Amino acid sequence: MTVETIRLTLAQAIVRHLAMQFIEIDGREQRLFGGGFGIFGHGNVTCLGEALYNHREELPLYRGQNEQSMGFAAAGYAKYHLRQRMMFCTASAGPGTSNLLTSAALAHANRLPMLLLCGDTFLTRLPDPVLQQLENFNDPTFGVNDAFKPVTRYWDRISHPAQIIQSLPAALASMLDPADCGPAFLGLPQDVQGWTYDYPAVFFEKKVHRIRRQRPDALEIEAAAALLKTARRPMIIAGGGVQYSKAIVELTEFAEATAIPVVETIAGRANMVATHPLNTGPLGVTGSNSANTIAEQADVIVAVGTRLQDFTTGSWTAFAHDAQIISLNVGRHDAAKHRSLPVVADAKMALQDFSAAMAGYQSPVDWTQQAKSEREKWDAYVAVNVAYGNRPNSYAQAIGVVNEHCDPADRVVAAAGGLPAEVTANWRTLKTGTVDVEFGYSCMGYEISGAWGARIAQSEQEADKDTIVFIGDGSYLMLNSDLYSSVISDKKLIVLVLDNGGFAVINKLQNNTGNESFNNLLSDCPTVTKPVGVDFAAHAASMGALTETVENPAELAEAFKRARQADKTTVLVMKVDSHEGWTTEGHTWWEVGTPHITDSDKVRSAHEDWESSRSQQRKGV
């Protein structure tokens, strides 16, 4: 039997294969890749660039301004599509590729798929050392691209064109696996990209993928149900995995059938609307008094789709020492944490089976009522916190303004600095699945880039809705170039730049641990000899955005209404106070390293106060 073959370069074969990958989502076939983000250099322009040009209709290539921000945009795209669709990123050999390291780490921490197609050194080594090549004197096979091994779920360096027949499907399988989902990296040596091979024609046939749903083991469900039925004070932690599994309905039905209070993680922040009677609020360090009060009394905790990060667990002080945890998670690693009784399965299927096994059980009425009462008190606090009048401008006030005037289906994006805590605590979810607070890697600079990626995804489905960005001046200065990307690609964003004069949230941590303000606020940097205020509106306008600078939340409200009506990216700038106006309630203990020896009485006192809560810390054995 003769096998039909097609002679192509390695680069041509990769792109042609990717163009034929589809995924079935809710009965509808769509391309697996919405396209890609690319910055060309000598390591990828001549071969991969040639191949991408010939498939520019099927795989649109968005021109990035910075490789790191391209990766953030790919993460924002994948998160919006609940990991069912993704983007690739291509960068040149050397600094172009190494710029992607941080965004690969962000995708890895958040369990998000993205395919990295990166230039690599010449396989033959004949021209070595080449421009931008780092030489390892003792191992010529070891290069910059090896640094991606700990921050990707799949890694390969292609040394022969035939290798992608196995490697490329394996990379896709990793990115589509619910448990192992994360970024995949293919190192493409510059010479090998142009080498040819007779590929089997079947390699380029249309492939329709479907996300696997793993059913729970019956014995694990039985054991979990037996434990939960003993609970007098049960609680559900709803994580980001609930959304990725599209299990919001099942979570809600399970909670309603059992009358169990629900608290949310940062990643699971929009699993329930704010007005649902069982939504007890956000949990943890950046949480709510309501959720944290219930958490410290709960005797059985059902954790669904969460990796139980320290901001969720209060560095493991949020729960009683004898509290028992049932962990429903598609990943074995996450399901087994901290003596949990694991149910390793897809959240939707696990909740369906768990509901059937819990038939007839109801949480005690007084416990459920206590949770509702605590939430009512927290809502009253938030209402005061976001109100504005005769007090300094604050993050919370800006959040309250947007919350009041946005469309329920608009998407909100924040990351790093003080805004993740403020959004998590003060945002009242109007529609499920509309909040993206990137706190898996807590990466400054994600905000605008991640929102651009999300907006590309959003425009494929809900073109009339907005993507709204909350960003501080520190993050804006760190990475803002995708404002320009959003303008030139006609992907409108509404960006609120809240200027507090530096890295104010770290200054707050510095002060809270007894330290003097130093090198965080611009006013407290000894090497800043000529303080210059940044005109953020003028800067954004220079990249083509519409801009307004406002003096207070009342003006912000009117400006936000105008931004909603605008047809292009709009940046709204408001100064906020760096010392006052923080959300002071709702925080659990958080472990940070403080000096055990110091000459400062304030630092010593803060250390002793911080350590006084360590006795509450749940040990992991």
The CATH topology annotation of the largest domain reads as Rossmann fold
Query: Number of folding domains?
Result: 4
Measure the end-to-end span: 60 Å
Radius of gyration: 25 Å
Average per-residue pLDDT, rounded, comes to 96
The first-level CATH class of the largest domain is given as Alpha Beta
Q: How many strands in all?
A: 23
SS-derived structural category:
alpha/beta
- Helix fraction, binned, reads 25-40%
Measured by DSSP, the beta-strand proportion falls in 15-25%
Q: Going across the major beta sheet, what is the strand order?
A: 5-4-6-7-9-8
What layout of secondary structure does this protein have?
Elements: E1 5-9, H1 10-19, E2 21-25, E3 28-31, E4 33-38, H2 48-53, E5 61-63, H3 67-80, E6 86-91, H4 95-98, H5 101-109, E7 115-120, E8 154-157, H6 164-176, E9 184-189, E10 196-200, E11 207-209, H7 218-228, E12 234-238, H8 240-244, H9 248-258, E13 262-264, E14 279-282, H10 289-297, E15 300-304, H11 310-313, E16 324-329, H12 332-335, E17 341-344, H13 347-357, H14 365-386, H15 395-405, E18 411-415, H16 419-426, E19 435-438, H17 446-459, E20 467-472, H18 473-478, H19 482-488, E21 494-499, H20 504-512, H21 536-542, E22 546-550, H22 553-565, E23 570-575, H23 601-611
Parallel strand pairs: 2-11, 4-5, 4-6, 6-7, 7-9, 8-9, 12-13, 12-15, 13-14, 15-16, 16-17, 18-19, 18-20, 20-21, 21-23, 22-23
Antiparallel strand pairs: 1-10, 2-3
